[in-house]
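Dear colleague,

Thank you for sharing your sequence with our group. We've completed the structure prediction you requested, and as agreed, I am returning the results in plain text so they can be pasted directly into your records. Please verify that the sequence below matches your submission; if there's any discrepancy, let me know and we will rerun it promptly.
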Amino acid sequence: MREVAAGKFWAGAFAAALVTALSALVVTLIVRAFGVFPLAPPWLVETTVSVRFAILGFVAALLGAALLYLLLVTTPGGDSFFGWIVGLLTLASVVLPFVYDATTGERIATSLVHLAIGLPILGLLPGVGDRAAVWR
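Please find the predicted structure tokens below.
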């Protein structure tokens, strides 16, 4: 039977959240260096666009970790379902900026930042789950 070592899992999840936040921050700074500003979520705290996306990435990674943990402890093959769920949510977040009333550059920049948030979650968290697994 597979169980999850909670302490090990959440330590890895926190590290993945930091990587996700940094990924969002770096991509935001890169697209801004080209003179394009991504569309920052207006409901986040009043800070710079880069910090808003870093916060969004950090929170998204922790929410993804909570979902993965729940799936691992309750569902056979939970990591496969997690991959599909996060993959589809990432795809939706990449397409979403194209429904906004904005310039094409802003839409593309926002899509790239959303991708920079989704890919680390999709790439890192399943490995965290595997390494925190305990077989009994």
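Summary note from our side: The chain has a mean pLDDT of 92.

Kind regards,
the structure core
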